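Listing S7. Sequence submitted for prediction.
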Amino acid sequence: MKVVMAHVLSTLLILCSWPLQAGIQLDSTRIIYPAGKREVTLGLTNHSPTPRLIQAWVDADEDNPAAVPFIVMPPIFRLDAHKGQSLRIIYSGDALAQDRESVFWINVLEVRPKRANASNEANAVKVSIRSRLKLFYRPEGLPGSPEKAVSLLHWRIVPDGSGYAIECKNPGAYNVSFNDVGLKGVSEKENKKQNGMCPAMGNHRFRITG
């Protein structure tokens, strides 16, 4: 079976802003941190009519929030209505791989204020919204380019438990992200939309559901 990649998005091609259903809008969908830079920034804008409490941090994995070599300044702050704020992301200098990109996650937690005229706060639901976007640490002098990274990928069908999966192997130094991965000749109903990332010098499996 021939694997086809629909709507392939490399780590350098996603340049549009990401409007959130919440009041806070981020000015990027991912952050590239070139080695040697003192810091990079991420802009936030509060489009809501009320202030928000913002907490921001970097972690390595959603299920394993281990210590990472990045700090965010300010980590906690108030963002007034219709105002903007820049987050400073600073690399601490701890050793990271120099032959490939490393991937981390930037988290932005938005907390709404209590309603001043709420008649029954005991029964009110307070919602906090967290946004996550990828942070790529990019060493200097990597071979190839982000634009050509997708052409280096190898694909195959492999057994996966009781079924099969599409396995992507990436021998390159750049991570490649996907909006949708599927099989040619499979109906849209059977070919469940899948997204994800094939890591630099690593592999990833997309489960075949049809």
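Caption to Listing S7: primary sequence and predicted structure tokens for the chain studied. The two ends are 13 Å apart (CA to CA). The chain has no helices and 15 strands.
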